[in-house]
Design brief:
Layout: H1 10-30, H2 39-67, H3 73-78, H4 107-128, H5 134-162, H6 166-179, H7 191-199, H8 209-222, H9 246-259
Helix pairs in contact: 1-2, 1-7, 2-5, 4-5, 4-6, 4-8
Length: about 260
């Protein structure tokens, strides 16, 4: 099926940046379904994925209404080309080891990423409660309750593994080293941030850095872990320039909708 072409306003792009981060993060977390280290955690990770998918659906539906071109949430989720997705690069990185040679993919990578991203999202939702966009503020109110649990779940596991065995601490340290180069993008302001703040839509990403770092350092301290040094590298997924992993995610995620256009369950 032919891809849709968007010419979104800054307002719509701001919403899509959050929506796509939730959507791709949910897709990666869903890869753990049936593969969790224990049954309880298998179910927990799947539920986290479903929460994020619900947030993505609400945001995509809202973006579709704002855009006014007649697209729906499914078209926005499944029929855009790769450069039209504005998610953080971190969430598209491999999360579950698929082979002995796959980079990352350790359970520790999942816990570290959940901690970093959930804390970032929770701070966004808190700020967006006061958005002049009433629809976005309403979405934030519901999402905030879920994000609080996501942070708690990730923080508990971070302490459990970081302050556990030598092997679990080693794996958490390695996972932090793999994830940390992508952190800079989470707080890199651009024209969307300037417009969002000027219009009362939402916060600049840089405004979240101090609170985010304070909370992350507190959890890492309790886990006997240390944050890696900041990296000069700046990933660009939120500008539509993605890593090599994004195309594979979209090929799997979009297959049914493109093979059976307009299909409904």
């Amino acid at each position: 099926m032919t891809s849709i072409a968007l010419k979104p306003s800054a307002h719509v792009r701001y919403v899509l940046r959050l929506a796509d981060t939730c959507l791709i993060h949910a897709q990666r977390l869903a890869e753990w379904c049936g593969h969790g280290p224990v049954l309880e955690e298998d179910i927990a990770l799947t539920n986290l994925s479903l929460d994020l998918l619900g947030q993505a659906r609400a945001l995509l539906s809202h973006a579709a209404q704002l855009d006014g071109q007649g697209f729906d949430e499914d078209q926005l989720a499944f029929l855009r080309d790769e450069p039209a997705y504005l998610n953080l690069t971190l969430v598209e990185q491999p999360m579950r080891r698929s082979s002995a040679h796959a980079p990352g993919g350790d359970f520790a990578d999942t816990i570290v990423r959940n901690l970093l991203v959930a804390t970032w999202l929770r701070l966004h939702w808190q700020q967006l409660l006061g958005s002049r966009d009433a629809g976005l503020a309403a979405i934030a109110g519901k999402a905030l309750k879920e994000a609080r649990y996501h942070v708690e779940h990730a923080a508990d596991w971070t302490v459990r593994l970081g302050d556990g065995t030598d092997e679990s601490a080693r794996r958490m340290t390695a996972a932090l080293a793999r994830a940390w180069p992508y952190v800079g993008e989470m707080f890199a302001d651009d024209a969307l941030d300037d417009a969002a703040q000027a219009e009362g839509l939402g916060p600049r990403r840089s405004a979240l850095r101090e609170a985010w770092r304070r909370e992350i350092d507190a959890v890492l301290g309790a886990a006997q872990l240390a944050a890696p040094p900041d990296s000069p590298y700046l990933s660009t997924g939120s500008r539509g320039v993605h890593s090599e992993h994004m195309g594979f995610i979209l090929a799997e995620m979009q297959h049914l909708q493109r093979a059976y256009p307009g299909g409904r369950w």
